[in-house]
Amino acid sequence: MPLWAARTNRGQPWGGFVTPPTWRSLEVATGDTLIVPAKVSGVAIDAVLDSGSGASIISKSLAAKLGMTNLEPRRINGLGGKAPVGLVRNVAVMLGAYAPVLPFAVIADLGAVSAAFGRPIDMLLGADVLAGGCVALDFATRRFAFEKPASFVPGPEWTTLSLGHGAKQELFVLASIAGLDPVPLMLDFGSSSALILSSAYIETHALLAGKPVSTAALGGVEGVQIVKSFIADTVSLGPLSIASVPALALDHWTSVSTVGNVGMPLLGQFDIVLDVFKGLLWLRASPPRGRLPMLKDRSGLGLAVSATELTVVHVASGSPADQAGWVLGEHVVAVNGRVIDVFYTRGSLWQWRYGPAGSRVTLKLADGTTRMLTLADYY
User: Fold this and answer.
1) Which residue of 18, 30, 47, 126 pairs with 53 in a disulfide if CB–CB is 3.0 to 4.6 A?
2) CATH number of the domain enclosing 195
3) Signal peptide span per the entry (predicted)?
4) What is the pTM of this model?
């Protein structure tokens, strides 16, 4: 049974909860990754909220530290393919005051996810954990609350959306792309892409017609894959619409129940309450200053991040980097005179790729040479 501890450090009331929620600090890393304090098997960690994963995922490195060695081999679906993983049984997790023992958790290589993020990712808290409570996300003040299920009654300022459950237990909502009929899109808090659509859906509705299209590198549990990038005219969740949404097209979309997913950059335009138990998602328009940035790369460099350098893992077609002759495997050690170190993704330096078109960036390579890159819209 869930264990609900006594409330401490009450925040200000957020209208709609039966009792004032207990707010805790929420880190929004690299603009779109939600990191919260949690415990697994009694060990304190920073975990990523990932509603797009049906089961919680523990990295191989953390599993080794915890002595999780008796693993059952399995294969799971990532966004674009299958990945070999292991299962471990009866895993004790704590998120806030909620302390379930999960029947199982997945042990997987999160190296590609960590490299794209620039910091080790120890655990993804999936829908199995989130289903145990009602999650509130307040981006304006960088805080979250994890309350009892069915503890939220929305006021008229909230838009109510129904949650569906796919064949693989993935959560989805209905959304309209470019004014078309609503389709099921996976609800994916763990995705740093605002919108991902299957290539089959895109081709059926000619969504790329007349649009500039480029490429991007997408990392997941199945590794890194190269996908198309473009701008979707609008995405509508019920009556709420967002224009000019950066999007990706996947050739091998594995979900049979959805045609894509909606990620945190788009969801972060709203205040959020999620109650998986009740099967409902509530969204409320937030002021611009309270929204997460909907980032658009203007460099064309896909980068893996380490403590000392940025490694080029992809050069987007037609991008400034492509036109300047960048190639895979090159190593950047400084940006605008600032050396790459372990604080690269914890400060603001990582934002250089998303600056205004026309901005000039100075990049120093490991061989000592320096290059100038002018940012531009290329898709």
Assistant:
1) 126
2) 2.40.70.10
3) none
4) 0.89
